[in-house]
Design brief:
The complex is a heterodimer of chains A (268) and B (317). Chain A is mainly alpha-helical and 268 residues long. Chain A has one domain. Helices cover 75% and strands 0% of the residues of chain A. Chain A is built from 12 helices and no strands. In chain A, helix 2 packs across helix 6 and helix 7 packs antiparallel against helix 11. Chain B folds into 2 domains: 230 residues, 3-Layer(aba) Sandwich (Rossmann fold); 67 residues, Alpha-Beta Plaits (2-Layer Sandwich), CATH 3.30.70. In chain B, the strands form 3 sheets. A 6-stranded mixed sheet of chain B has the order 5-6-7-3-8-9, with helices on both faces. In chain B, a hairpin with a 2-residue loop joins strand 8 and strand 9. In chain B, helix 8 packs across helix 10. The longest helix of chain B is centred in the middle third of the chain and has 18 residues. The two termini of chain B are 37 Å apart. The interface between A and B is medium-sized, with 28 and 36 residues. Chain B: Keywords: Antibiotic resistance, ATP-binding, Nucleotide-binding, Transport.
């Protein structure tokens, strides 16, 4: 058990270190995320003001916190659908992964999570800091939302990693999953609550969003950290994240097992 | 002792889509081969003959269409992870190192993957770094290595967990002469020291000659030859070549019994005679040549294995 933990921890750290080699790219990401953040501030603040100072419980301070935390998470929560695993399935390098005494799904997600965690440093924290300094935001004053928020944030990252893995695993049949990745990109941001907070959706769309794992990637962690919902509700959100992780993780196991029998490694 | 590899009637088909039709391609068919622990086996054949497909089935990457395979006594697909602890694989065309990390970082990750203890990791890494002369580039990111350096690191990565069976798919592809030489010397030493079983595919016959005591030739998915190297030459009747340097120019030696004149250089100062080792001997040929001219120096060339394989193909087609 200890040895097993060590393996995935080591892979996670490797993902973290690998990502740390691309600092200039991270800076570019930060600039893009912050610019887009300012744009969101302009539009969403106008919405709040048009609603007489609050919309669905969002006042200006909470809206700002939502904008900057969600922008900060963009570098860490995989909403693009792309993954190294998808590349490896397509190129056939995944054969090498199957030659190791590890769970291929676990290894892929650990690597992905490691990369995501690194991105919190050059992209996540600075984005929130920029927002706090330039625009200002309302944040909780007691520690509970932050502690639970850290757990929720991590779960959001892992749920996204596990979902993106599903796309990659479909590559065992499709080989090239770019079409699926683009589909994921098209729906994920919207349903995760990246552009507009989910509570602002029309009721039917909100219900639809909650029936997908996307809010568990972004909206829920933001809700927990900003204490938009109370502690009991926050615990409920974290529970929902865990449930999604179990379902998606289990599905990934099944796809990997079935896909492996289908795998025809390309070339060489 | 239980064979380390046992294939029985092993076969694999692929379905290739051509426009709207699906065509079945038999990549490997009816392969029955056993390999004993400690053997060093060269697995040779033309491109597309089925070498890589076989290796993928041996290691559990590819599910066979027919037949059975046991590697290290295990079922490669069902017991993939247990098998992975006992097998090391080098794919010359694919990397198992982490492209953007220093070489030693890859070794550390792999040591964790194979659950090596701290002491075992240090000892084995030290041994490999020394024997493969990797000390100079341990801290270099993999993407900055030369091909020769990378292949050495790849081999080390595959052997880090001291596997009982090492499978090398084109390990010397693209390497210069010196790098090839180094790698072969390492593999010979590794085998002598640890009794490791080797299975290697290659287009480089030098690899087979230097490393292997048994040769399997695969042709269009089927086993065409199984035996030692000299036996292979005998089977296809490959000729050896006697090269003689003469003290003065002599007309082409066309009438030496049991030989075929191949070429002359320097107006007949050096002549090359092919002979069938079954029909005559080098000594008899030399005696016949000496009767016609004074021999200053001589060399006997072994058959070119590539030529041998080509002959096998030709004979079977």
């Amino acid at each position: 058990m200890r040895a097993t933990t060590r393996v995935y921890w080591r892979l996670l750290v490797a993902g973290f270190r690998r990502q740390s080699r691309y600092r200039l790219a991270a800076l570019g990401g930060l600039v893009a995320n912050s610019t887009f953040g300012l744009l969101k501030v302009v539009i969403l603040f106008a919405t709040v003001r048009a609603g007489g100072g609050a919309v669905e419980g969002y006042d200006v301070g909470l809206m700002s916190a939502y904008v900057w935390i969600s922008q900060g998470l963009l570098g860490s929560v995989n909403l693009s659908g792309r993954s190294e695993m998808a590349e490896r399935v397509k190129s056939g390098d995944v054969a090498v992964d199957f030659l190791r005494p590890v769970d291929v799904q676990g290894a892929a997600i650990a690597t992905e999570v490691g990369r995501s965690l690194f991105n919190l440093l050059p992209r996540g924290l600075p984005a929130v800091l920029i927002g706090a300094l330039v625009v200002g935001m309302a944040m909780p004053t007691h520690p509970a939302p932050y502690l639970l928020g850290a757990v929720s944030l991590l779960l959001g990252i892992v749920v996204a990693g596990a979902t993106v893995y599903l796309i990659a695993a479909l590559g065992f049949w499709l080989v090239d999953t770019r079409g699926l990745q683009i589909f994921y990109l098209a729906v994920s941001g919207f349903l995760a609550g990246l552009f507009v907070p989910i509570p602002l959706f029309p009721a039917w769309l909100e219900a639809l969003a909650h029936a997908t794992p996307f809010p568990a990637m972004l909206q829920y962690p933001v809700d927990v950290i900003t204490a938009r919902v109370d502690l009991a509700a926050s615990l409920g959100l974290v529970g929902a994240q865990l449930a999604w992780l179990l379902v998606i993780g289990g599905l990934g196991q099944l796809l990997t097992r079935a896909g492996r029998r289908h795998l025809e490694v390309q070339g060489g | 002792m239980e064979p380390i590899i046992q294939m029985t009637g092993l076969g694999r088909d692929f379905h290739v889509r051509e426009r709207l039709r699906r065509r079945k391609v038999v990549a490997v068919d009816d392969l029955t081969v056993g390999v004993e622990p400690g053997e060093a086996v060269g697995y040779i054949g033309a491109n597309g003959a089925g070498k890589s497909t076989t290796i993928k089935m041996l290691t559990g990457i590819l599910v066979p269409t027919r037949g059975e395979v046991r590697t290290c006594g295990l079922h490669p697909v069902r017991e993939r992870r247990r098998l992975a602890r006992q097998v090391g694989v080098v794919f010359g065309q694919r990397s198992q190192l982490w492209w953007d990390l220093p070489v030693q970082e890859s070794f550390r990750i792999l040591a964790a993957v194979h659950a090596l203890t701290g002491e075992a990791e240090r000892a084995r890494t030290g041994e490999l770094v020394e024997q493969l002369e990797m000390a100079d580039f341990l801290t270099t990111p993999v993407r900055q290595l030369s091909l020769g350096q990378r292949m050495r690191a790849e081999v080390a990565a595959a052997l880090l967990h001291s596997p009982r069976l090492v499978i090398l798919d084109e390990p010397t592809i693209g390497l210069d002469v010196l790098s090839k030489q180094r790698l072969r010397e390492f593999l010979v030493a590794e085998r002598r020291l640890h009794g490791t079983t080797l299975l290697l595919t290659t287009h480089d016959m030098g690899d087979v000659e230097r490393l292997c005591d048994r040769v399997l030739v695969i042709d269009r998915g089927r086993l065409a030859y199984d035996g030692d190297l000299p036996g292979l030459s005998r089977t296809v009747g490959a000729e050896r070549v006697l090269v003689v340097d003469l003290s003065e120019p002599v007309p082409d030696l066309l009438d030496v019994p049991g030989t075929r004149h191949l070429a002359s250089e320097g107006h007949g100062l050096r002549q090359r005679l092919a002979f069938d080792a079954e029909a005559t001997t080098a000594a008899r040929v030399l005696a016949d040549v000496s009767r016609r001219a004074e021999v200053r120096d001589l060399a006997v060339e072994e058959p070119d294995i590539e030529d041998v394989v080509r002959r096998i193909y030709a004979a079977r087609r």
